[in-house]
Design goal:
This protein is mainly alpha-helical. It is built from 16 helices and seven strands.
């Protein structure tokens, strides 16, 4: 008997006495409904009470709740089970599709209109938080299409389901408790508190803990409203980036030509050096313009989201602040690139070359092989981050090949 099953058996006896707090729904019972109710009663409710959530809030929000087993990426009660072998998030798939010009061409005109519509407010937000308005709008666009995307899920149900049978149960249990705190505070109703299938809420797609820390009431109506207020949404995004270390006055990065004499294995923020040192090594902007004078003595690093199969960049610290919003190089690059295109709607100079499509499971296997050879891939998680890319490149060089730093 596994630890989780033993724990479930102990829960069951105690929960039978108190199940009236979370009664059986009138719908036909699902496969996991009974165990889910026990989980709520014996695990979530005590933890939420310790966090200051009242019994009346718990009864109101959890009464009759059932798990949504249609959500992607679930592994089984207690988080036990084989992780999915495919990538459900677009940010972790082949970059060429993620950076289709059609997406940017669709988002740029609306962003320009919103920049004009909110010119005065955006100037105030930029002055207070030090984050450029074009970056704020680009995140808003990527997260919810400036609020136009459907955000269809009940946040509490999503978070409770992932706490019960997702890959990171402890993480999602804490987010569920944070969501209950949000509802108790009264900023939003349960009906309005909609989320993605991953539990991210509202137009800026904040997890509940991020909402509690970073959402702001910039329109001064007494509510931190990231669901229907454009002003609160923009200011909350800016506050998030500022609190995560945005460097005022610096850009996010620059597309460059990386000569063959500079190995792609030098990628990564732990290999930063002054930008003028890269210039002396022959790294130049693809635009033909020099790097801004104020950037030359500032640190930067090589960024190659598809290795030698795609564009190369010199990234600043602000690129990694964007990654605090979503832990994906492709995501941060999309935001930075879209922000640039509000001014001049031109795509990358270098192409995304055709590459082999792979699965998360196959990447995880490759990472485990590289780890066995002593490489630091940043954890065998099936995601091709910069540590995995440069480890691939080092392995290629060890075998006498020119490093491409990509699967192939």
């Amino acid at each position: 008997m596994t630890h989780y099953v033993r724990r479930l058996a102990l829960w069951f006896g105690a929960a039978l006495l108190t199940l009236n707090a979370v009664p059986h729904p009138s719908a036909v019972a699902g496969q996991y409904d009974a165990a889910f109710r026990i989980f709520l009663q014996s695990d979530v409710i005590p933890a939420a009470r310790r966090a200051g959530v009242s019994q009346s809030t718990l009864t109101r929000e959890l009464n009759g709740l059932t798990p949504d087993t249609s959500l992607p990426g679930l592994v089984g009660p207690g988080g036990k089970g084989e992780p999915p072998r495919i990538n459900f998030q677009a940010e972790f798939r082949a970059p060429a599709r993620y950076f289709r010009d059609s997406q940017f061409n669709a988002l740029v005109p609306s962003g320009r209109r919103l920049m004009q519509k909110h010119a005065s407010v955006l100037s105030q937000i930029e002055a207070q938080y030090g984050v450029p308005k074009r970056i704020i709008l680009a995140i808003w666009a990527r997260e919810s299409g400036y609020g136009g995307a459907k955000i269809p899920h009940d946040a509490v149900r999503v978070l409770a389901t992932r706490a019960f049978m997702g890959q990171r149960p402890d993480f999602f249990k804490s987010e569920l408790i944070a969501a209950l705190q949000v509802l108790q505070n009264g900023d939003v109703s349960r009906r309005t508190m909609r989320s993605s299938w991953g539990g991210a809420m509202g137009q800026p797609q904040f997890l509940p803990s991020s909402y509690l820390k970073y959402a702001v009431d910039f329109d001064r109506d007494g509510k931190r409203n990231i669901w229907t207020s454009e002003i609160d949404t923009m200011a909350s995004i800016a506050n998030y980036l500022a609190k995560h270390g945005w460097k005022t006055g610096r850009d996010w990065g620059y597309e460059v030509h990386l000569p063959d004499t500079v190995s792609c294995t030098r990628e990564g923020p732990d290999n930063r050096q002054p930008i003028n040192t890269f210039v002396r090594e022959g790294v130049n902007r693809v635009s033909g313009r020099p790097f801004p004078e104020f950037e030359l003595n500032k640190p930067g690093n090589i960024l190659m989201p598809a290795g030698r199969y795609g564009p190369a960049f010199i990234a600043t610290e602000n690129f990694y602040v964007l990654k605090e919003y979503n832990e994906s190089d492709a995501y941060a690059l999309f935001v930075g690139h879209l922000a640039d295109r509000y001014g001049n709607n031109k795509g990358f100079v270098a192409d995304w070359k055709p590459m082999k499509e792979t699965t998360r499971g196959a990447v995880r296997t490759l990472q485990q092989r590289l780890e066995a050879q002593g490489h630091d891939v940043g954890g065998a998680d099936g995601l091709i981050g910069f540590k995995t890319r440069r480890s691939i490149g080092k392995d290629q060089e060890r075998q006498g090949f020119f490093a491409t730093c990509w699967v192939g």
